[in-house]
Amino acid sequence: MSSVCQRIIDDFGSALGLSGLSRVPWYLIAGKAGPNAVLKIVIPPARLARGYVLTVARHASTPVIKHEVSVVNRLRQALPPHVSESVPKVLVHGQFDGLEYFGIPFYESRGNRRIARRLARKRRLAWVEQWLTELGAATRHCGLTQEWLEAEYAKTISRIQADPRVACDVKRQVQESFETICNSAEQIPSVCCHGDLWPGNILWQHASTGAVVLDWGAARWPGLPCVDLCRFALSNFGSNGPIGDAIRRYCRAIGLDPAYVPALYDLYNVFVKAELDVAYATQPLARWDPFLEDGDASPSHKLSCMLAPIK
Fold it and tell me: Is 18 helix (H, G, I), strand (E, B) or coil?
């Protein structure tokens, strides 16, 4: 594996006009096992050279590479300059010895030692809210379509309905949320959805007032609105903090009725848990629930409570 990685690094370096790049220090990060497994080659910046990160996978059998490159390149063209800087630039997209790879610059994340932790979290939520609002404005399209929803979710939901490990009430919730969104599809704008916007995929710059958003392999464009904001907010604050207000402001900005947010988040969970978590599971699960979260209430139930009209 080491010799293969060195040759990929040299192939990448040749495309950039850099010779002997494999002789500088580098290391590997192995991803999860599964149908979309990737390997990352990290070349950290040296005293006289910038750093790079290469994402590598088997060509043809792992479409996530081509998909991520396509989404990132489209976004950098569609977004205004001050927003596109938060999307990594693909420097080289190539193939070598049956493997496909793309390389981006090495981005360093700056710490927040001088900022109180709670203040940093609030600043980060504010940045993500504004960034997603601008992302939505730049990629917004007219309503979702039933054809797209059927193509994206129908097979997965059918598998859930036939799965004996899934409880009847969970199956009912999945179906009800899917029907809610399908019946109102034209009223729900589509946007580019990152699909995995948790804190680990954001490298913060400038004391939480700027960032680079990584790992677009699960992105959907067109995709569901608001679920990225919910994912990030819930992973940072749980059901506490200024989540409800942030979601309402985002919904107003892109023209989305907040009443649809819980059902949209259900569909997001169906995709993540059914298509990703189960696919990557190394052992069979005795019981499976796409809405289970540490034995607590489901995320969509929390969102319903937070977004309920104030009486």
Answer: coil
